[in-house]
Specification:
Radius of gyration of chain A: 19 Å
Structural class of chain A: mainly alpha
Number of domains of chain A: 2
Oligomer: homodimer
Number of strands of chain A: 0
Order of helices and strands of chain A: HHHHHHHHHH
Number of helices of chain A: 10
Distance between the termini of chain A: 35 Å
Chain lengths: ~210, ~210
Amino acid sequence: MRADAQRNAEKLRAAAAELFQERGLQVPLKEIARRAGVSHGTLYNLFGTREALIDEVVTDLAAERLDAIAQQALAFEDAWDGFAYYIEKLCELQATDPAVADVVGGRYPGAERLMTVCGRTLATVERIVERARQAGTLRPDFTSADLVLILAANANLARAAAASAPHVWRRAVAFQLDGLRTEAARRPLPVGPLTPEQVYAVSGSLTRNP
Amino acid sequence: MRADAQRNAEKLRAAAAELFQERGLQVPLKEIARRAGVSHGTLYNLFGTREALIDEVVTDLAAERLDAIAQQALAFEDAWDGFAYYIEKLCELQATDPAVADVVGGRYPGAERLMTVCGRTLATVERIVERARQAGTLRPDFTSADLVLILAANANLARAAAASAPHVWRRAVAFQLDGLRTEAARRPLPVGPLTPEQVYAVSGSLTRNP
DNA sequence: AGGCAACTTGACCGCAGGGTCAACTTCCAT
DNA sequence: ATGGAAGTTGACCCTGCGGTCAAGTTGCCT
């Protein structure tokens, strides 16, 4: 790869990182090229697809954030505290970091590195949930698949309230967590948990893609 | 108004009602015209704006649905049961009726009749919530303004899961309701309720408009 | 029946986004 | 220093949306 192409790729990566974090992963590619100061043709030439660019620019960032909160959650002595911490932090990411929110709430099958990060995260979620359930504080009918229900809820509230009430998602999360303790469980849930395939399908359209 | 215009208006109203209920209020106007079998120019000629069409076609439908569940909710002996019924039915509407979902989750300032329906509904919500809170079953820190938090949550889950798990919203609502009982309340909520202005702003962008 | 107002039509405009490619420019190995 | 490969550019195409309007058609009153 020639030196000037290398430089352009770097400029594009930088611009993409900025815009992805400011406005989410669906930001127009031409706008990224504009901010980088190159033609959009060059962007297509160097990266080919949006997903390839995402994979290069967003993966490490998302992995860092997601792994960090997962580790901290598991470090709590109290299993419930760890669980609640994890939920809150994940929701905070959704509210404050459009790029990570889209990683969590979208599907980018072409971004291979990103997909492995998602897989790793799912496994950790399972551990956090299982630990809290076994401790007896998390209601036993809550599955790790139910996490996407919370994320679906929060994604929309965070988006809808971003301009007018940027912190109100915390209130909603508090309500939700109160409903997840063992003592809060009243009667059998009306429907069973999502299957892994359903989790995949639903979590792939949490943030608006169409 | 000439007879043929009258007929066309009727065809357009019918097509609009169908498409609004199938696909929501943002369905392309040209598609409505196509289904009605007239030129889109005629649609613009007869109705002028999307909101005018909505006002004529959707208002009565939405009013009927919303008033019905509100009345039934207030008819429950038990205040909590009425409240829970209302939440569930509202969420069911969001999940099954795209048109009503968009009425609840959007803003159509040009649709005057529709606006009065919304105002009336808000007042009834207040009564349902107040009744359940005074009965002592609904946690006292829950405000009628918090209803939009639930609706925001459900709007997105219903949309995201519509294809793959069309009933899972019931599970999420069950979790949420369990968190709203007085006994579930653990500690002060991290942020206060939305102001009326914030409710207006947030509830205006529950469903995707941009 | 005729004529005019009312109505309809579809081509057309503007916008925004994704994506392609021939012609031009720049780098760098020889 | 120079020629050819590598890279860049921006005009161009396509799609789909909202919206307008001159020209043509139709209903209805006289």
